[in-house]
Structures are given as structure tokens and as C-alpha cells.
Amino acid sequence: MTKALLFGEYKTARFLPLLRARGYTDFVVYSAVEFDPAAEFDADGVEVRPMNLDWTADDVLRVLEAERPDVAIANPYPHGQEQLPIVYGRAAARWAGRFVAHSAEFAEVACDKVRLHETGTERGWPIPAGAVCADAAEVVSARDELGFPLVIKEAQSQAGDGRFYAESPEELDAVLAAGLAFPAIVQTFKRGVETGIELISSRDDLVRWPVVSMGPLDAGLDPTLRARVSPYVLPERAAARLDAFVTDIQDNFAPFGPWQIDFAVAGDDIVVLEINPRLGGLTNLDLTSTGTDPYAVFIAAVTGDPLPEVHTSAVTIELPSTEIPGTEVPAHPEGADVMQVTNREPTNRCFINSDRMQLITTIGDVNAGRRWIKELDAEGLLRCSPESAYRQLEQGFADFDEEEQTR
User: Fold this and answer.
1) DSSP symbol at 305
2) Pairing of β 212-216 and β 257-266
3) Which helix (H) or strand (E) holds 402?
4) CA-to-CA distance for 244 and 293, rounded, in angstroms?
5) Which strand (E) or helix (H) includes residue 230?
6) What are phi and psi of 356, to 5 degrees?
7) 308, 292 in Cβ contact below 8 A?
8) pLDDT profile of the chain (407 residues), mean per 10
9) With the C-alpha atoms ordered 217, 222, 224, 227, is the resulting torsion angle positive or negative?
């Protein structure tokens, strides 16, 4: 019997078949939510036990000692578990067995925005100009130095929380009046295209998926309400800056497992906005655009198998949508599959709002894609403007052609 332990319930159904194919038969999933395993996946050999969101490294080590798994896997879900990678990293440094978890040093720069800013300043990373603030008076001082517009980020928060935008003294006063948690980082708001890239590290090996465009940055700071497209070709200088940043992280901070960089492209340069130490919102788009499943690569890292190279195979768009009972998604104009990601099961909690949905598909013809987007909007399904989706689609085709020519 070969035993795998998952710290976190997110996407359990994606992990289990891959682990079973490699001979694992006994599974323990520590979960932050109650759910019926048999209702969500093949639960043969699976035990689900409660996770405490206030665990320390000592608590995690007690779990490891009690379970004695052949492999332990850190699998944090963003809502409620955003700070646990730091705990897993500290525990992994003290555990003699195989624990696929980022080092505490990497987890700290990924989970703590103040730590990211301080480390980035020390190492010359491409981060926005900003200041670490311990109280409201220091926020006001930073405002006077940096000017508007500003982004204010609490040091440690859960996904989607603790980030605020202000373009006037009145808006900043409202942020402070609402009860900002300190320490916080105050940064200049960089206008440009928000982009992201998903990576998986396995000790000395690294896999990178293509850069994804999340559309122009906006005051709402919510890329889940914008159309996303892959691939997105960076300007030469921006690509070099990203390569140097990734290399520094890989060589000096010991990431082990999946991570994601959210950054802005402004002119011919990049500005790193945040790092996520987990699989996240780009996974389905990456799978559809390349045919290489990030979860399969994650399990290859878990088992120590070689990691593959990844290349874009088609222009792919992800559209923020609304799930309306009784309303069918219009047929894809070219007959391709459309992945519909919804909020169905507790272990697939992609969205807090239960009517939210993402539609992900390849597009082979830009005009057919435009017609399909128009049909989605006519049915009331589209959460972004059709015009913004058209622009993203056209950018994807231009960049795919450029990528094909240079390959």
C-alpha cells in the first residue's frame, strides 16, 4: 500500500486518478470544509479529516507523524488557506520524509505582500514604487510621496481581500476609515496590461506555461471579470526581465510545486504585482491552450518524474460568464469543446458567487470567435463587455502568429 496525504481539499478529483495511475492506493485529505467524498469522486481508499486553518508547523508535523505518508502534498485553496504555505514550508524543513511544499523563504515572499516588497527592493526585482506602512499616518506620508492613483495592500490576506484602489484623498480616507489592517504596502498604480504565468518547480527543474493576458488593469483590481487570452507575447525587454526574475526565484528561494506570477506589462517592461504559491485561476486556460495539464505536471513533480516542455497549440480564450438555469451556452462555432467551470462542489469552489462561471475554449477563426462572443452576450451570459473580449481575441491571434513564426 502506498499512501499520499493532501493538505487541502481543492480539486481532489483532479489529483486522485493521477496518483492512482502511479500506484498510490491509500489517500488522506485534510479539508477545511465538510463534504461527502463519494458525491464528488471515486472515494475508494480515501479518508477525509478536518483541517485547522490556525495550524502551526508543529501541528503539521504532528499530522505527518500520525499519518506517516509515503508523500505529503501541500495543496492550499486560496479562500481561507492563503497563509498556510508558510506553515507547510517550515514543517517540510523539519520532516525527513517527502513533502512537496515550497520552502518557507519562498512562501513568505508569495504570501506576505510586505515581505515581497522588501525582498524585491533588496534584490532589484521589477516591483512598483511603494512604501511599507505601520499606521494611517505613514499611509498619508506615502501618499504625499507617491501621488495618486494608489493601490493599498494588507500584508497578509485571503485571495480577493485586502486590496484597495484610491485615486483621490477622499477615496484613501474611505479605505482607512473602513479599517485597514497593518502593516500594509502602499504602491503606485501601474497602468498597463495585467498578465500572468503559471509555473511548476521540481527541485532543479521548472515548467512554464505561456503568458496569459488578463486585459488592461482597472480600478476594480478583479481580473476574473475580464476576458483572458493565451498566448500573449511580451516585448523583448519585458521577456528578459521576467526570465531574470523567474531565474532568481528558482535558484535562490527553493520553490517546490506550483506557483503563479501576476504582473503588469507597461510599455516594454514588467511590474510584478504578486506571487501565488499554488495552482490557481490560470490552470484551465493553460490546459486548454497547450494540452498539458498542470495537475499532471504537479503529480510528476510529486513523484520525481521528468517534467515536460509546454507549448501553445491554439489561441484560447476564457470568458467570465453567468450561469443561468435553463439557458444553454451557444454552440461553439467550430465544434470545439467548451470547458464550463462552475461552483458545483465544495472541493471545486472556484468562485464565491454561485452564479459565476468561466467558459474556456480554443478559437481557430477570429471572426467565428467574435460571432460566438456576440451570441453569449445576447443570451445575457457574458460578464465582460463584448468589445473587450474582441480586443483580447484579436491580440491572441496576433501573438499566436508571432509565436509560431519564432518557434
Assistant:
1) P
2) unpaired
3) helix 386-406
4) 25
5) strand 228-230
6) -80, 145
7) yes
8) 93 94 97 90 96 96 98 88 95 97 98 95 96 95 94 81 89 92 91 95 93 87 87 97 98 97 95 92 95 97 94 96 93 90 76 80 96 97 96 96 68
9) negative
**Nearest alpha carbon to residue 288 among 209, 383, 216:** 209
User: How many Å separate Cα 376 from the centre of its chain?
Assistant: 26
**Could you give the dihedral angle defined by the CA atoms of residues 269, 272, 273 and 275, in that order, rounded to the nearest 10 degrees?**
150
Cell of 121: 527592493
Look-up of cell digits 499519518: 67
Mutual angle of helices 386-406 and 366-378, in 10-degree steps:
160
Where does 137-203 show beta strands of DSSP type E? Answer: 150-154, 163-166, 184-188, 193-202
Dihedral pair phi/psi, residue 16, rounded to 5°: -60, -50
Q: What is the DSSP letter of 233?
A: P
Locate 231 and state its grid cell.
498566448
How many Cα atoms are found within 13 Å in the side-chain-facing hemisphere of 19? 26
41 — alpha (psi -120 to 50), left (phi > 0) or beta? beta
